[in-house]
Amino acid sequence: MLLKPKIIWIDGVGCNGCSHSFFNLTYIDTLLNKIELLYHPLLDTDEFKIQKSDILIIEGALKDNFQKFNKNLIEIVEDLFSLTTKIIALGSCASFGGIFGEGILFNKENLGRFYNYKDKIINLPGCPIHPEWLGYVLEMIITKKPIVLDEENRPKEIYSFVSHSGCVRNEYFDWKVDSEDFGTKEGCLFYNQGCQGPFTHSSCNKILWNEVSSKPRAGLPCFGCTERNFPKINLFQTDTMMGIPTKIPLGVNKRAYLTLAGIAKSLKNERLEKRLFEYEKTNNKN
Amino acid sequence: MKKLITKIEGEAILNITGDKIVEMVEIEFYQFRGIEEYLKNKNFMDSLVINPRICGICGHSHLIATTKAIENAFNTKITKKAKLFRQLTLNFEIIENHIKWFYITLFPTQIKDKKFLFKAIQLSQNLSKAIALITGQYPHTSYAIPGGITSDITYLELSKVKNIIDEVLQTQTLFEDLKLFFENLPKEIGKSNNRFLKASEVELSQIYEKKNQKHQFVTYDNLFFEVGPLARQKENIKEIYNKYEDSIYSRIYARLFETIELLKQNLKICDEIDLSEKSYIKPNIISNKGHSIIEAPRGILIHEVDILNEKIQNYNIIVPTQFNLSSDKNMLSAAQKAIIGEKIEYIDTIFKCFDICAVCVGH
Amino acid sequence: MKESKKEVIMKTALTLFAKKGFYVTTIADIAKEMGMSVGNMYNYFASKEALAKELLLYTSRKFGDEIRKINEQTITSKEKIEKIIELYFTMAVNEPELVDYFMRVYLSNKEIFNNGCEGMLCVSAFVTEIMIFFEEGVRKKELKNQDFFVAFGLFMGYIGGIVFLNNDGVLPKPLSEYSKDVSENIYNALKA
After folding, report:
1. Percentage of residues of chain A with pLDDT beyond 70
2. Are B18 and B29 in contact (CB under 8 A)?
3. Whether A16 and B9 lie within 8 Å, measured CB to CB
4. pLDDT at B306 exceeding the cut of 80
5. Global pTM?
6. Architecture of the domain delimited by B2-12+21-361
7. C49-190: CATH, from 1.10.443.10, 1.10.357.10, 1.10.10.10, 3.40.1130.10
8. Domain A6-150: which topology?
9. Chains contacting chain A through 3 or more C-beta pairs under 8 A
10. What are C132-174's pLDDT values in tens digits?
11. Per-residue b or e along B2-30, where b marks 16 or more CB atoms closer than 10 Å to that residue's CB
């Protein structure tokens, strides 16, 4: 009988979105039964106290002079860090700073103030995280399996993919049929709507959100929320230089991409040039 | 004495005077993030990504309020389809909020049993799925943009949404669990000012907000009002309200009642939607001020935006918790009045009956 | 072996197109000039259309390669413009049939190229290099960020126009002596 790992989950400066996203994990009941949750910001647990833990989960960013539990947030984090074996930086705020403050291991393009804890920290950026990302990490830790991390301490099994992998609009990307505007399921959102899918590490279109969908399926561009510089300025616009996107799919060199794009743009895919189907206007309401 | 209240999407501190009975209470919020400042000088479209992230449980309401405020500034029209979808998803968020609040936040103040947590999670996962079918993901979508919505829904998604509503209606046991909750709790405690405000009644010029302080202060017509489900539903729950006035029982009952009502309303909305209409009509972007006043899960939510050459000059947000949990020595807010005169042991329950969102206050 | 013969055929074709005109010149004319049989010609090019397309790819790649060499130098955008103009004007003088084909035949006979050379398909080697040049310039904040086609039109229209004037015998000075001023005008129009 494996001893249940003791987990403390605290929130820094954030919105608690990662907690609420985690509540959407389909197997959360079985998972919660495998751990001992010493504290959670929303779920009913014992009162918070500085104590040892096997895993420390922290969602939300760091900020000076931020009051929590009648103490200073940074002091609480320092104390808890020294009493734990594994730290999960949950969400973009904790991983990289996000919108509200500093990240733990990394702070945007700089190193975070707890960089010396690098070996203990697993980064799970995302705004919010996908519940399965945390579910996966906890399962791996519980069953003592090693998690392979990339240079930003993100699990490769989740973050080796890009948002573009599995996007239903792939055909439109391939044939450079750009969406002129919002509101249609047809068209690629890369050129005119600021989609960062081709160069954002995530598995959003691989495992889908809430088991059913993803932003591009709902006509929204990927906002690159798992990357260090999230959020960028002008999230709905593609940064271009002389009409050429400044960021292109990962692993492709610019010349190759431009040549391919130019060829695709010159050729026509008739099926994709028009809407897949149309609804007949209904004038009567029943 | 100072009492720290947690598990309210953040924290608050109550400054209580009184031994066994509360003589006076002051409410402090001290965790601020500075979103209004962050939005300054950003392109107006960015607010659609930033503002939902004010809150992880009621972020969708912020999205709708943001989009509507910008549309108000641009004087944009949207299609009926877009309007209905937005109401549909906003309702879903309200429903999910009430369920989570009831089982995860409120229930443990009286009954500690994990099965209620799992009940809430089961229902809210389904509701999140319904929202995601329309908006791509939940939490944190930006699908409602000035001009309409970004999604192009088919009956494949819409029929699934309807089935989820049916399932939630059939599997929920809210009113049975309400009985359980009140087994050992008096129903008549927590009576307050009995003074309510709904979004439809608000004239923006009558709103006054003191900013940047730990004692929230939002008045309407120079008085503190109560906003939220009881304000919205008291006409519809006349029997209960007449018997229990604005006690915690009415406050809780109104939320559960609203949950069922909105689920039924959503079924109707699904049938009303005409998918052949356009999702989005490109708005005419101008420099102007705009605002929106909507009903969010916890009550009235106000967004005000000032756009100049596509950039945000100014943005102001007033959240429902600011209304209900204002704190003053001379005038008593809804939450203050509800707690004062009651036993100290009931503070947590009475306080949480107002369904507090501390992160929203700390925007 | 076949490749270099192919190149000779193409060069011969280019000369004839420039001298006699594209439509007038036939496969037979080219074969005669090469001292080949018409049947043998068809071993290399299935039709005049096929030859026309390959010529386009050939000229585009040739320009593209030269511009790529300039792109890869660590010099300023201003200097790159000067070198590209210099390259173009030099080619216009030394291999006029090449420039003539690219600017005259291609642009005036689009219908030949519609099947298999749609849009920028056959000139992508050249256009890609111009794109790379522009993008680098904007990235280094030397060129103004603007619509690609606005900049491209200015660039190509201008140098094409000067070459046309030169070919019509209107310019008083040799083409190379206009290189500096033309480059400066282009740079002033595109600079950040």
Report:
1. 98
2. no
3. yes
4. yes
5. 0.94
6. Orthogonal Bundle (1.10)
7. 1.10.357.10
8. Rossmann fold (3.40.50)
9. B, C
10. 999 999 999 999 999 999 999 999 899 989 998 998 889 999 9
11. eeebbbbbbbbbbebebeeebeebbbbbb
